[in-house]
Write a structure and sequence with these properties.
The protein is α/β, with parallel strands linked by helices. It contains ten helices and seven strands.
Length: about 290
């Protein structure tokens, strides 16, 4: 081999290494209890303060709360637990429940190392195998969370999620559990499912691959629009917790008016009303 050939091969190797950088190092996860995944930089950015609502203030979703809390406690103790899909109506506390459950379980298990919350954004799902590989050797147990997960027609990112959850050779790391929230039960819009069925040579098989994604979640928790008594219970719990001086009759009347202007009743609407109410009374909300 000539000197020129050797130099050329060396430049080719260096170019390939730049195109395919080494995997991210194993994170220590000691700086915080929550992180956000940034794949473009190959790192986990610590979150110093998570926007969390206390678990006791989440009203109208008691059954979902109890099931997710028990599942998460098992995982934190090193026992078998299921990946969870929280699906359903907007504003009913799906993401708030995940963060509140994490805070509760992390506080209970802090002496044993605690539980880390790692958020991956919807648009970064294709990098999920890379993140899982980095977390596999992490010293703490990790609750991986994706908010508002769904897929549009033509997208193939869902294949990365399917392989990581159950179907891949390596499978999900023992120290990682995956929670996702979505407005869609099958993570794919109904019209997209119908389009796939109509255009495919074998309609059943075309749809099955995408619809079966939700089957990879062992725990399904449905969230539905709340009735007026439940909406009032949410508002009253917030008002009491933050010490807002307003009588029950006035509170309910103003809360009802607020929901009419928003055209819906939900936990998010209740929270927005209480923020406005607290502001009018000059009471800060921590």
């Amino acid at each position: 081999m000539t000197q020129d050939t050797a130099a050329l091969l060396l430049r080719l190797v260096e170019a390939l290494e730049r195109l395919a950088p080494p995997p991210p190092p194993v994170p220590e996860l000691a700086r915080a209890d929550a992180y956000v995944w940034h794949p473009e930089r190959g790192r986990l950015a610590p979150v110093t303060e998570v926007a969390t609502v206390p678990l006791a203030l989440l009203k109208g979703i008691e059954r979902q709360r109890d099931l997710l809390l028990e599942n998460t406690r098992r995982f934190a103790r090193g026992l078998p637990a299921n990946n969870a899909l929280l699906w359903g109506a907007r504003g009913m506390g799906k993401s708030s429940l995940v963060k509140a459950v994490h805070a509760q379980v992390n506080a209970e298990t802090r002496e044993a190392g605690g539980l880390v919350l790692v958020e991956i954004h919807r648009e970064d799902i294709r990098t999920l195998p890379t993140l899982m590989g980095a977390l596999r050797e992490a010293p703490r147990r990790c609750l991986l969370f994706c908010d508002d997960l769904s897929f549009d027609p033509g997208e193939t990112d869902y294949k990365s999620l399917k392989a990581v959850l159950e179907g891949g050779v390596e499978g999900r790391p023992a120290n990682v559990l995956f929670y996702a929230t979505s407005n869609r039960r099958h993570l794919l819009a109904r019209e997209a499912i119908e389009n796939e069925r109509a255009a495919a040579f074998n309609p059943g098989d075309a749809v099955e691959e995408k619809v079966s994604l939700s089957d990879r979640f062992g725990l399904w928790l449905g969230f539905h629009h709340c009735d007026q008594p439940t909406y009032f219970a949410m508002v009253e719990a917030y008002a009491q917790a933050f010490g807002i001086p307003v009588d029950a009759e006035t509170l309910r009347r103003e809360a009802a008016e607020w929901s009419v202007t928003r055209g819906s009743r939900s936990g998010r609407v209740a929270w927005q009303f209480v923020q406005d109410l607290a502001g009018r009374h000059g009471i800060p909300i921590p």
